[in-house]
Amino acid sequence: MTDERAELARRFAAQRGCGTMLSGIRPPSVREQLAVLGESLTGDPVPDFYGEGGPVEELEGRVAELLGAEAVAFFPTGTMAQQIALRYGAELTGRDGVGLHPLSHPVLHERDALVLLAGLRTVRTTDAPRNPTAGEVAALDEPIGTLMLELPLRDAGFVLPTWDELTAVVAAARARGARVHLDGARLWESTVHLGHPLAEIAALADSTYVSFYKSLKGHSGAALAGDAELVRYARAWRHRHGGNLFQQWPAALAALAGLAHELPRLPDYVAHAKVVAAALATLPGARVHPEPPHTHQFRLWLPHPAEALNEANLALAEEERAWFVGGWRDTEVPGVALAEVTVAGPALELDADRVVDLADRFLRRLPQS
């Protein structure tokens, strides 16, 4: 086993042993996940075959209902779904430019797939750490076929626009003759800040992608929603991309379980994230962003090296069965590290005082300067 794999195994074991967790969830074992699939079954459904029928079709119908969409296609990954949606926009408009943020997922996390596989060009909408404004879209110096908006913009700190800002930027894109696509990997929890239900948010766009594992605790998978013409096109290109898996019912059942059990809890997570963030902001040298959080996830900075913070968190988990925050990484500021905090079910048990107490126990494990 490599050092990296050994470290991942240690972290997994430490998290599984924790009775108290501030950020994230206790990772389920394979056996526990299989039990969830069994609980999701109603009757004895037939499996899907190459994306048709069974739980996959049930899931597509449920998502179409939630998003108010004419049609939905299930995909094994959001990367694949979004490339196809953006390609469709280019073919319809005759413009290969895609307006998107330089911190968006296709730019940072997909190894230039949008360019190399879909033949599209990226057009930066803004360098500010937020989604673009209507004025910035109107001022773009080249035409775009599609404006892609990531809601929330994860790598800027899970930030969202206001509803008025969102509707204005959509209108600006329309005025330029562009389509609008929503990267809604975390759209489920964005309804609280935007103040509108999922269907009203999705209705602003021509296409919307949602993820089933980021907030809903599914195994994998994504959905692309839009009109019937888009979805017919998406199914053809899904096949070309190798996304027509023989059977995907395990992922579909896990997603249905997430829609049933996690989706209704997300507003509580978002509300409690504000309590947690306010408590963490009182720690020595700490900074949180955004303050208050827009969703149930936010960024936390502490004035210590990442290695020391990660080791302190693992030691706390292994010795006290308590998980503070993991996944620290160093920043461009020497001696300051950053982590993403996810407030989920376990954190609801911690009020502000218990958050501060857990943080103090964590900080005491850091080397003293």
UniProtKB/TrEMBL annotation:
Domain called Aromatic amino acid beta-eliminating lyase/threonine aldolase: residue spans: 48-295
Keywords associated with the record: Pyridoxal phosphate
One Pfam family recorded for the sequence: Beta_elim_lyase
Recorded superkingdom: Bacteria
Presence of keyword Cell membrane: no
Cofactor: pyridoxal 5'-phosphate
Coiled-coil region: none
Transmembrane segments: none
Family of this protein: Belongs to the threonine aldolase family.
Name of the protein described by the UniProt record: Threonine aldolase
Organism: Micromonospora solifontis
